[in-house]
Design goal:
The protein is built from four helices and six strands. 36% of the residues lie in helices and 26% in strands. It has one domain: GAF domain (Beta-Lactamase), CATH 3.30.450.40. With 153 residues, the chain is of the alpha+beta class. The structure holds methionine sulfoxide. The site of methionine sulfoxide (SME) has 15 residues, from β1, α3 and β6.
């Protein structure tokens, strides 16, 4: 798994003050999608102002219709409420799921905390069945913590 190898590269993108935050987030999505074979769509959603909904901020992969997701809806909306990682080995088993593409077999969503508040999440779709492990969760928690550090300042 290239997680350890990717960390320094991701850190330097996130900390690159010459790029806007949106540009940095897009580059992180690209690097994850390009380097991890079973990451087919990678996006960051954030709480949309004071509304109880998520808004897509950056992504890599096919464009999605689901720019806005109400809290509670789909895997993403459930994580906005639960504050917990949600790993779905097989999306067909989920009733509360928003399909972005018929090719998606599995999904992982990891919340992003700023000062202990769930302000957003990273969402990854995979065309591979059951690809995610504890290592993915830990790695994505690490990515989100690095993003939170630059959102803080
Ligand atoms: N599948 C997600 C919707 C977002 S797309 O994967 C880009 C969900 O059920 O919340």
């Amino acid at each position: 798994m290239p997680f350890q190898k990717l960390k320094p590269e991701i850190k330097s993108i996130i900390e690159n003050e010459n790029l806007s935050i949106d540009h940095r987030l897009s580059q992180v999505c690209e690097i994850l999608k390009e380097n991890i074979p079973y990451y087919d769509w990678v996006g960051f959603y954030f709480k949309n102002g004071d509304k109880n909904e998520l808004k897509l901020r950056s992504f890599a992969g096919e464009p999605t219709d689901h720019i806005i997701i109400p809290f509670g809806k789909g895997i993403c909306g459930q994580v906005a409420v639960s504050n917990k990682n949600f790993v779905v080995p097989d999306v067909k088993t989920q009733n509360n799921y928003i399909a972005c593409s018929i090719n998606v077999k599995a999904e992982i969503v990891v919340p992003l905390f700023l000062n202990d508040e769930n302000i957003g999440q990273i969402d990854i779709d995979s065309h591979t069945a059951d690809p995610f492990s504890k290592e993915d969760e830990e790695f994505l928690e690490w990515v989100n913590a690095r993003v939170a550090e630059v959102l803080k300042v």
